[in-house]
Specification:
The protein is an alpha+beta fold and 86 residues long. Helix content is 33%, strand content 26%.
Length: 86
């Protein structure tokens, strides 16, 4: 039997995609925000499609700020862009 592929919803585009195609951004208990390429860090997570368009959209709409309930620094978006270029 084929294994079930875990799906997650991109907070920017609203698309449901396999977890491997998304990048996770995490806010921990201390209120720090990280890009989580492993998808296993503790904390509140939000998933973004690994594309420049989705990251730009998230930045414009402020969807990461809303879903993580904290202001996401510009450095996080820059780090996400590096992943999108790979």
């Amino acid at each position: 039997m084929a294994r079930k592929i875990p799906l997650r919803r991109c907070v920017a585009t609203g698309e449901q995609l396999p977890k491997k195609e998304l990048i996770r951004v995490v806010r921990n208990k201390e209120g720090e925000v990280f890009v989580d390429p492993t998808g296993k860090m503790n904390g509140r997570g939000a998933y973004l499609k690994c594309s420049k368009e989705a990251i730009d959209l998230a930045r414009k709409k402020g969807v990461l700020d809303k879903s993580l309930e904290i202001h996401v620094p510009e450095s996080i978006y820059e780090e996400l862009m590096k992943y999108a270029k790979q």
